[in-house]
Amino acid sequence: MTQGPYRVDGRTARVWASDAMAGLARRLGRDPLQRLRSITDCSVWDSTRRPDREALRAALVGQDALLCVLTDQIDAAVMETARGLRVISSISVGVDHIDLDAATQRGIIVTNTPGVLVETTAELAIALLLTVTRRVVEADADVRRGHWTPEARWQIDGYLGKDLAGSTLGLVGLGAIGQAVAARAQAFGLRVLGWSRSGRKVPGVERVSLDRVLAEADFVSLHLASTDETRGLMDASALQSMKPGAILINTARGDLVDELALVDALSAGHLSGAGLDVFAQEPLSQGHPLLTLPSVVLTPHIGSATEGTRIRMVDLAVANLEAALSGQNPLHCANPDVFSR
After folding, report:
1. CB–CB of 107/341 below 8 Å?
2. Exposure check for the chain: N or C terminus, fewer CB within 10 A?
3. Are residues 93 and 124 in the same domain?
4. Cis peptide leading into 51, omega within 30 of 0?
5. Collapsing DSSP states into helix, strand and coil, what is residue 128?
């Protein structure tokens, strides 16, 4: 789109961005929000601390649109303050941080950024799988601590991991990211089982029941959205039904997994490891028992954390916002029912 600046009630549209993206700008050598600044009256949150609830409510007074990230909790009370809000454009795939029902009732279009982070997130899932199976973090820590000594230069039973080739990977969810993981897994010589609620067929993936995925897979990787049906899917019963010695990978949503039940399954030796990029509460509290388990690799929600992917997410979020302000359908709308209102 080249049109702009956009007008609302005879004035330039007002947009508030909850992140100034200064770090991304330094890495890229350009302002990711330049396009937004050129087509709207754009103000930004310029603190290094994330805006809290009261800061969000205050900042959105008089705004026509919001460009936000997944740590911004946009509930009905926040929207009530922002009575003129027309668009919420989130730089994320998931929109569970936004009350979609409240937005739809108020005629607010909510957009998101699926698709552009598929390959990047799939790469992280494989990276976590490799890191856990080959005990990379544990080995690196021992080298740094000076535990790699002449006396223990090489041990036939040292840092024994698991082979990927010839093993079975179970995918819970076969959307775009699950399919991208499947393609990579096949290159490693993994047999791939898959289950999805839609029942879709994926080349190279044996479609089976969820029970079979859990019972037969050496490694289980989660690729589902957080919904009423999927929250807590991996509870104590599901974890116990996994193959003994299996490994769990989660790059989807933290609330898919009962974390305390996972700690119990790992501590008891039923599962041999886990690689987690997402958690029920983020950031993970410093007293969380997951931190005590050496067989678990933890990363701070970095599934989309590459330069190319992050700027593609911002560009898509801005394009969504621009389309909505211009009266066109955005590329990705999370609450399409809003148009019937």
Report:
1. yes
2. C
3. no
4. no
5. helix
Catalytic residue check, 49: no
Q: Which of 200, 282, 307, 341 is catalytic?
A: 282
Closest CA to 237 of 261, 259, 255: 261
Is 282 tagged catalytic? yes
> Containing H/E element for 176?
helix 176-187
User: Do 15 and 331 meet the contact criterion of CB atoms below 8 Å apart?
Assistant: no
Q: Of residues 253, 259, 322, 332, which has the active-site annotation?
A: 253
Q: Is residue 2 part of a domain?
A: no
Q: Are 38 and 4 in contact (CB under 8 A)?
A: yes
Report residue 5 as tokens.
Answer: 């600046």
Q: What is the CA radius of gyration of the chain?
A: 22
Q: Which residue has the tokens 């929109």?
A: 95
- Please tell me whether residues 60 and 143 are part of one structural domain: no
Residue indicated by tokens 């006396």: 151
Catalytic-residue membership of 147: no
Polymer length of the chain: 341
Domain count, the chain: 2
User: Model confidence over 161-210: pLDDT tens digits?
Assistant: 999 999 999 999 999 999 999 999 999 999 999 999 888 899 999 999 99
Domain holding 195, by residue range, is: 118-298
